[in-house]
Amino acid sequence: MKQSKDELYMKQILDFIMDGEIVSMGKIAKEVGISEKSVRNKLNDLDDYLRENDFGTIQRKPRVGIWFDSTPQQKEALSSVIDLKGNNLAGKYNPKERVTEILKIFFNLWPWQKITTQKLAEQLYLSVPTVLKVLKECEEWLEQYNIKLVNERGKGYCLKGEESSYRIALKNLIMEKKEREEIQKNLDYFFTNINVSTMEKCIIRAENSWKNHFTDESFYEILIYCCLAYKRKEFGYSLVGTHNKEELELLQKYNEYEFTVAIFKEVEDEFHVRFTEEEVLFLSIQILCSKFIGFSEDRVSLEDVKKYDNKLLEFVDKLLAVIGNILDVDFSGDQQLKESLILHLRPTIFRLRYGTPEKNDLSQFIKLEYKHVFRASWAISILFDEYYNLQITEDEIGYIVLYIQASIERRFTQYKAVFLTKANMGHAQLIKERIRKAIPEITEISFVGTHEFRLMDHKDADIIISQTEMKEKDKRIVVIPNMLSEKGIMTLRNHLNVMGSQIQASQKCFSPGCCLLFSPELIFVEEKVSSKEEILKVMCDAMERKGFVTENFFHTVMERESKTTTSIGNGVSLPHGSPTEVNESKVAIAILKEPIMWDNELVQIIFLLGFKMITKEEINRIQLFYKEYVSLIENQEAISRLKEMESSIEIYKYLIH
Questions:
Q1: How confident is the model over 481-502, as pLDDT tens digits?
Q2: Distance from C-alpha of 91 to C-alpha of 96, rounded to nearest angstrom
Q3: DSSP H stretches of helix in 161-215
Q4: What pLDDT, in 10s, does the model give residues 464-481?
Q5: H/E stretch holding 219
Q6: Cβ atoms within 10 Å of 126's Cβ, excluding its own
Q7: What sign results for the dihedral spanned by CA atoms 40, 44, 50, 54?
């Protein structure tokens, strides 16, 4: 078993204090080469391990120091399970790692195998009581997948659960540490009888053929599922047809289904095996919920969805009617909202049905920031039950709230209009009242006689309404012969929708091609720090926790900082790390409460880049980012707006909405 850095550090700490001498926290930190805070955390884990196994305790006394307190017998017992002289650490200090190691053992058992607590204790160099305690934690982990840890008297423990749940759980276990090296290590551990490299090539060939390219995370997920389909078939385990017939007939019309067929065709030809329809359906659902970095033009076609999923269209209309009724807002005319929800809910239905829920890291923020819309949106839970017999989760509600909130905010855009007329004041007043009631976002209307109108006099007008064609050419002008008719109102409404889209597009800092680079959980607002090392550590840690970069990414960022300044003027800094430590390209952003000295300049806004450029799509995206980023930082108004924003959501929406 390869030793982790945490284990190595804790072994070094234990070596240092093993003789029982009193030492200071600072001395341990200097000896081991980590911070005092890290030493403190590792001493806590180490003390837990020693106490659990009755090997002694770590004593700490303020202004005195730290020492290892144990009897000769305890020290001898400890030495028997931990190689204190060599470089390998046999015991597992970290409780989370112990849970992971035991789960890996269970998921790697042959179908007929069981394992006893004594055997687990021997393999992991733990006491039997400690193993029993860890098994309780394993049961909690398995419970979320409806998998049971069953103990057969005299034989030992094994896993019992649905085959689909087993595969999803194992996939998540393999992907627990998102670093490529860790995933590859787990693939080698679980699929020793499969040529994983060949399986990868099968998926890549299908990607290239279909011009669909997964993100790294999704690629590994699909790779794991393909390997599992092959391995479990050898064991005689197949997926049982428990799917909703109506939904599966619908799924077969989706492009994701045909894409899955193409992947399995590559695998079947290479490995000389045949997969069942259930395997294809299961994987196509996982692909439907996957993330892509490059799309073929017809991968997701709203028009196609409209052709064969009338139930979804009806569901979205009902959903908007229910929420609109509660909020007293008419969403029926918001085509952008409707289409966004259709495309979002398309995979959501399958995600909820087949056990791959999407975690929403912004749920708590959404509940607080948009609590009125959030509470109103809970009313749609009954619709999910009525239409799909599903229980909607709080995380999924959060995503819907963001779409609804964006629609509401769009409505607050106010327009100033000029109406060109030959009519008398009575008729003009009638038109004004008609517009006010039908289109309340037009908050100011001035009437100008056609003969006296000059375009240059109305630069501040958002829209110019004329009853006849005009010589002047201006995108604000709309010709509506009869403003009192229903057709006239609809023409004006459509013109405003187009204008609104154009205004939003002009306000975007980054185009849709860059959207995947940003994530609200990687945006930090009003941060109080005293040095660039401090804020960069915060940002790198967040990227590492999400699996976008490796644990070594921070070191490469600081290494580059030591060689050259990354301050680029206008109070902005653009640090970056090594592409070899990046799993998925992302940008972290920090807006500091007060500027800090960044080498020789004051900096308040930091864009931390974690980029890798392997595929053509990645290269194009990064090049587009740099091009648009230059425009952003040269715009003093944009920089000022970023500094004034108070939430990560606000910044995220400003950057891409």
A1: 888 777 788 788 777 767 765 5
A2: 13
A3: 163-174, 180-190, 196-210
A4: 988 888 888 888 888 988
A5: helix 216-234
A6: 25
A7: positive
Distance CA 85, CA 41 (A): 23
Which 3 state secondary structure label does DSSP give 224?
Answer: helix
Give this prediction's pTM: 0.56
Please give the Cα distance from 386 to 546 (Å, whole number).
35
Q: What residues pair up with 592 in beta bridges, in sequence order? A: 527
Provide the pLDDT for residue 495.
Answer: 79
Question: How many whole angstroms separate alpha carbon 327 and alpha carbon 405?
Answer: 11
| β-bridge partners, 607 | 589
From CA 184, how far away is CA 227, in angstroms rounded? 13
Label residues 61-98 b or e (16+ Cβ within 10 Å = b). eeeebbbbebeeebbebbeebbeeeeeebbbbbbbeeb
Question: Helix count (H) and strand count (E) of the chain?
Answer: 28, 15
The span from the CA of 280 to the CA of 561, in Å, is 49
End-to-end CA distance of the chain: 47
Mean pLDDT along residues 225-247 = 78
The Cα–Cα gap between 551 and 177 comes to 10
Query: Are 166 and 128 contacting, i.e. CB atoms less than 8 angstroms apart?
Result: no
Sign of CA dihedral 534, 538, 539, 544: positive
Compute the distance between CA of residue 212 and CA of residue 231 in angstroms, rounded to an integer.
26
Question: Cα-atom radius of gyration of the chain, to the nearest Å?
Answer: 30
Amino acid making up residue 81: V
Closest Cα to residue 549, out of 480, 594, 606, 611? 611
CA neighbor of 296 nearest in space, from 350, 246, 256: 256
Q: Which residue type occupies 378? A: W
